[in-house]
Design a protein that fits this description.
Largest sheet: none
Radius of gyration: 25 Å
Helix content: over 70%
Strand content: under 5%
Distance between the termini: 71 Å
Number of helices: 9
Shape: elongated
Order of helices and strands: HHHHHHHHH
Oligomer: single chain
Length: 182
């Protein structure tokens, strides 16, 4: 069994592939939570929370808290992160040799005549591993986020933060603590 860590760059490729798979899984599980929080921040930063009556503002803030809590719980229940073998499988799909998986195999009874052949096979697989690239998973992202909300929501919030300048925190504070009355 060949040690994958002895091949330069393989450990980092597996780690980067794992992180990309994890990012897709996190988005898939928690996008409703991110959307609720983003909508709340957009409403707060545009001043709609300040302009609304105290009853409407209090009700909407309470509604957003409940929605955020529920979507967070659903996200925690839905999230199932990838495993290292998923990252290896994603990298292996780039080559018909399946080099990472094949390098983890070994002959059951190494014979003298087969050792040379096995070493040549191992060298060929090692060369194939060096040619592997970290996949972009663009197809997975298209399925998980067809409207590219993962880019639109942060850009809109950052834009509103820039527009509001120093008043941003005050507006968010007003939206988070409306007058609930007595």
């Amino acid at each position: 069994m060949a040690d994958l860590n002895r091949i330069p760059g393989v450990k980092s490729r597996i780690a980067r592939t794992y992180r990309r798979l994890r990012d897709v899984a996190v988005w898939h599980a928690f996008w409703p939570f991110f959307a609720v929080i983003s909508v709340f921040l957009i409403i707060a930063l545009t001043g709609l929370a300040e302009a609304a009556s105290s009853r409407v503002s209090a009700f909407s803030t309470l509604l957003f808290f409940v929605a955020a809590f529920i979507t967070l719980l659903r996200g925690l229940r839905r999230y199932s992160g990838p495993e290292r073998k998923d990252a290896i499988r994603a990298l292996d799909e780039q080559s018909d040799l399946r080099p990472l998986t094949s390098l983890q195999d070994r002959p059951t009874k190494p014979e003298k005549s087969g050792v040379t052949l096995w070493r040549a096979h191992e060298q060929r697989l090692t060369d194939a591993v060096r040619r592997l690239n970290v996949p972009s998973f663009s197809d997975l992202w298209r399925k998980a986020d067809p409207f590219v909300f993962r880019g639109i929501l942060p850009v809109s919030i950052i834009s509103l933060l820039i527009i509001n300048g120093t008043g941003s925190l005050e507006r968010i504070g007003i939206a988070l603590s409306p007058d609930y009355g007595s």
